[in-house]
Amino acid sequence: MSLLEVEVLNVRHGLLQAVCDVSFKIDRSEIVAFVGANGAGKTTLFRALAGAHMPASGRVVLDGADVTSVPDHQRVKRGIALVPEGRHLFKDLTVYENLALANAAGRKGAWSIDSVFDVFPNLVPHLRQKAGTLSGGEQQAAAIGRALITNPDVLLLDEVSLGLSPAAVENVYASIGRLVGAATTILLVEQDLDRALSVATRVICMLEGRVVLEDAVGKLSREQIIEAYFGTRQTRSEGVTTQ
Questions:
Q1: Looking at domain 4-241, which CATH architecture does it have?
Q2: Tens of pLDDT along 208-242?
């Protein structure tokens, strides 16, 4: 049985349908990159998976349990954690206080404040520093650490490199590499295709709210992904259709 199953999910912003009939399955320890142009529906999809935006129809099933109508704070306790675009830390609280709040809200498991600092040692000198005064890369590390400390079964990372310096991106992806070694199940939204492919085992490409390509990284060429990204060809793992 798959860890996460999404079945014909539709999500709206008022009259705008941002996610259209999206279905996929995620197995444990997979790293799946969601790619697509701005407005493709990736962030809305992740918010729906996390319970922050309720879908109009369809189902989200986590480890065999239907969580479609479960709100976001309860989904954290069920095992889904979102690192949102823009990080959304409590900026007036210290790094330690941000992590401690997540620790209280989450589940028991292998991740603790100490193990988060093992993955993100750059946070240790800033333990008592207010989160809002950190650099962009340090804030992203704190946001990922805050999600990990809830001990999620599924970690959703939305635009982890957005707005970061090249050096900060290197540090963040080095940390993601350590999470891969820890067999963490990760769904990743990333505009930098090369970065996404460097860590992912599978790619799902979205276009105008729909999944138009899905396959293992090793089975796809960069050209196929770019064609799906820009809508010059619509591809699914079941077959290929030229538009």
A1: 3-Layer(aba) Sandwich (3.40)
A2: 999 999 999 999 999 999 999 988 754 444 443 33
